[in-house]
Amino acid sequence: MDRRPTIVDVARQAGVSKSTVSLVLQNSALVKEETRQQVRQAMADIGYVYNRAAATLRSANAGLIGLVINDLRNPFFTEFATSLQMALSAAGYATVLANTDEDPDLQGQVVSAMLEHGVSALIIAPTYGQEDATFGAISRAGIPALQVLRKVVPEVDRFPFAAPDYLAGGRLAARHLLDLGARRIAFLGGLEGREVTYQRMSGYLAVLAAAGLPPLVLPGRPGRAFGREAARLLARSHPDVDAVICFNDLVALGLLSGCAEIGRRVGPDLKIVGFDDIEDCAQVFPGLTSVRCDIACFGQRMAETMLRWLRDGCAPPPETLTPVELIARGSTLSR
Amino acid sequence: MDRRPTIVDVARQAGVSKSTVSLVLQNSALVKEETRQQVRQAMADIGYVYNRAAATLRSANAGLIGLVINDLRNPFFTEFATSLQMALSAAGYATVLANTDEDPDLQGQVVSAMLEHGVSALIIAPTYGQEDATFGAISRAGIPALQVLRKVVPEVDRFPFAAPDYLAGGRLAARHLLDLGARRIAFLGGLEGREVTYQRMSGYLAVLAAAGLPPLVLPGRPGRAFGREAARLLARSHPDVDAVICFNDLVALGLLSGCAEIGRRVGPDLKIVGFDDIEDCAQVFPGLTSVRCDIACFGQRMAETMLRWLRDGCAPPPETLTPVELIARGSTLSR
DNA sequence: CTGAAAGCGCTTACAG
DNA sequence: CTGAAAGCGCTTACAG
């Protein structure tokens, strides 16, 4: 047997027609149990492998879902992608994954490639820029698509949006610090002009305004390197700052390292809150207080949402915000 | 236009036959430049999207490569998967990715699913267990497949193996510590019975044996949590240990946290070397000395290797070990 | 250089 | 419940 066996080979082996084999493949209730057994046995005997390309061509369902991620190296997104992929896999869908590295051109390319491959749906943690090119192409393809974690196009009826409730998270973080007696609270990291930065910052701004305290916003790249440098910057240029809310955990973890480096005590001297609650937060010392988005759960939830949309035609609500909670750890203890 | 346009529609629009359109799609030199332009224009005009499923059915090349990873949450593997995917994407291949979470059953499942999807090739960072089920299926499908980072089946002619030179890495780490005056060096982490654990340990064992020093091996799960606990274990049960080589960076970073927690000075009191050199190593304080595997480069290299195999039929050598180097940082400084 | 025809391996109505 | 036939959108020889 040098070529791959087809349903015709299976049919011959089992002594039925190829239509019957096809029905068995689809778990149709039309086929008698005994026949089903025979067919399955025949498949096993000749080593049949289902050819999805052929099935796709006829029925226009590839069983393939595209997952596009703006920064897959960030553990927050890794966890998201992993939990989503595993949930889809359990439901019989394979995941085509691409990292766009915050590059809009790359994003356009990979989305086109996925559409050519006939993905049945797309879940996209988008990057900013060239939104029309990317989402226009998806729109023309007419497949279900979810924008997650960042809203980059306003058409949430066509492209429903879901994310953790960043605003509430920022509020929780700010209140936590106020309750602990902090009086000069900064917001650190996140690129200026990005909607997601503003989202994560706005709860903080609201709480400070309500308390009659002035905000201090120090934008920066959302990675460890910036956080680490910021430790020096804070000590030198803003010695009055007694607490910091970071754009994400990477910035916060960098800041933690930076404080260790310059010998500033995290907790008593400077309280630090991260955002996302990636796994590292619980493992570093002192532990990093963070806003838990439960991204693994969020990933599973997005998988279910998409499966429901695909299977029952039941589109999700235009906007979904999932709850967040504050996890207090050593980085905000006073001693 | 409610159905997706096909090459027939493009042909009609451009006033040529559908064969010609197909040739244009394949960038065939047979088509006159002027005709090519017309056809491309027609595609753009009617919003044509290439249907790869149809092409695959006829020509048996899906332009899809499967990537199977045993632990995608570990930044080492994330970086590997990301760099590989991006290199494949640049070459026009889409990547189907799955995390197996070290579960052999899951691995069998996702590999089957990928074969059904007609992946042209497979790159697999395998888990231990049920090797025959997984690799038997790949073998029957007859597609090129690479086992990377771990060798789990001995048939390296059929499944070429590539990984960083772990043995050399262990040797570098041990020599580095001996040169710095360490006299009681432990090897920490890695599950017993796994080939990869032995690989990473063997350079250490060889160097210690040559120096006439007794080894101390403390196996454990390859994550931060184990490393952190190990700080206590070492201080209590093995106070004479003055240096540690860790199975991977996660263990080492956990150990770093654990030492901070119990107030043990990393460097002067205890020297620590990690393995992999993930990005965090340079960002923590003190910086973590580690064995650099340059996994991003390794990922790109594997992409090229596979592309050459696929395009030129040029199979890689049965075993490839890529060089590693020791990156010294604060965690092995004496003060 | 271009066109007409067959065929890849399935699914889908439609008869029986 | 099962079978014969058409067709999904391409590619691939084969003529011209």
Automatic annotation (TrEMBL), chains A, B:
Keywords: DNA-binding, Transcription, Transcription regulation. One of its GO terms (molecular function) is DNA-binding transcription factor activity. InterPro entries: HTH_LacI, LacI/GalR-like_sensor, Lambda_DNA-bd_dom_sf, Peripla_BP_I. CDD domains: HTH_LacI, PBP1_MalI-like. It comes from the Bacteria. SMART domains: HTH_LACI. Residues 5-59 form the HTH lacI-type domain. This is LacI family transcriptional regulator. The lineage of its organism: Bacteria, Pseudomonadati, Pseudomonadota, Alphaproteobacteria, Rhodobacterales.
